[in-house]
Amino acid sequence: MSWNILDAVGLVFEALDLLGSGSSKTESLNYNESTKSSKRKESKYFVEWVSTSFVLISCVLLFIVFKDPLLVDSFFQTVCIAILIGFVIAFICCFALYIVEFFYFKSFFSMLFFCTSMIVLGTASVLCLYFRAGLF
User: Staple 54 to which of 26, 80, 121, 132, CB 3.0 to 4.6 Å?
Assistant: First the structure.
């Protein structure tokens, strides 16, 4: 008897279908309708407002950092490391939003704007902390 990997994958998918088919479709539709009606009414452009506020906060932080000349030996390396840390902070925040199921967007561009504003805010926060707080 020959054992085929595709047969094993098919068995796994059939088992998953059996486990997931415990409720009928009408029950799930009624459940979805009741959860939609119980949700509070959100603003139409909530994500855009949050993203814009992140960008404005980032602009203020970057103005605080760059208003005076910086006395750093390797300025380019410092900024590159701050940008990488900003990427990590944005990834952690977006992953946390995904875990609690708040990471959904109406369009690709609103997601791109939100993620970019998170990266800029993380980078500006790290630069402000590094240059102005004197922790490093």
Answer: 121
Euclidean distance between CA atoms 103 and 93, whole angstroms: 10
Q: Would you give the DSSP letter of residue 90?
A: H
CA distance 40 to 122: 30
62 with 125: CB under 8 angstroms?
no
Neighbours of 95 (CB within 10 A): 10
Name residues whose C-beta falls within 8 Å of residue 101's C-beta, 6 or more positions apart in sequence.
Answer: none
Residue type, 114: F
| pLDDT value at 123 more than 70 | yes
Q: Are 55 and 117 in contact (CB under 8 A)?
A: yes
State the residue for tokens 């979805």: 32
